[in-house]
Design a protein that fits this description.
One of its GO terms (molecular function) is ATP binding. Keywords: ATP-binding, Nucleotide-binding. This protein is an all-alpha fold. It contains six helices and no strands. 70% of the residues lie in helices and 0% in strands.
Length: 108
C-alpha cells in the first residue's frame, strides 16, 4: 500500500480531524444537507491537515452510516478505519494520474 498502516494508526491529526468534523456536523441545524455539509467540512479539514479527500463510495454507504452511529456512541474506530481506506484510495487515484507506473515501481 502507498500509505503505511502505522502512519494512519498513530497519526493523531488524522483522528482529530475526523472527530472534529463529526462534532461540527452534529452542531449543524439544517433540515436537509447535514451529510453533504459534514463531508465537505471533513474533506476541507483533511486537506488542511495534508491528507487527500475521503470519498465514500455508494457501496460503502451502509457501512458509513453504521460507523457514524458508532461514533455517536463514542466508538471512533469504525469511522476512522472507513475514512482511512477512503483516503488511501484517493491517494492511489491521484498517484495513478500523475505517475501511472507507481504500482509497478513501488508495489510489485
Amino acid at each position: 500500500k502507498v500509505c503505511c498502516e502505522e502512519l494512519f494508526h498513530c497519526h493523531f491529526l488524522f483522528y482529530y480531524t475526523i472527530k472534529w468534523s463529526l462534532v461540527c456536523c452534529k452542531e449543524l441545524d439544517y433540515y436537509n444537507g447535514n451529510g453533504r455539509t459534514g463531508r465537505l467540512i471533513m474533506n476541507v479539514e483533511l486537506m488542511n491537515a495534508g491528507y487527500s479527500i475521503a470519498i465514500i463510495e455508494p457501496m460503502e454507504r451502509e457501512d458509513y452510516y453504521n460507523a457514524l452511529e458508532k461514533a455517536d456512541e463514542g466508538d471512533y474506530q469504525p469511522i476512522t478505519r472507513l475514512l482511512k481506506d477512503a483516503v488511501q484510495r484517493s491517494i492511489e487515484r491521484e498517484l495513478q494520474v500523475v505517475y501511472p507506473e507507481w504500482r509497478k515501481d513501488h508495489i510489485e
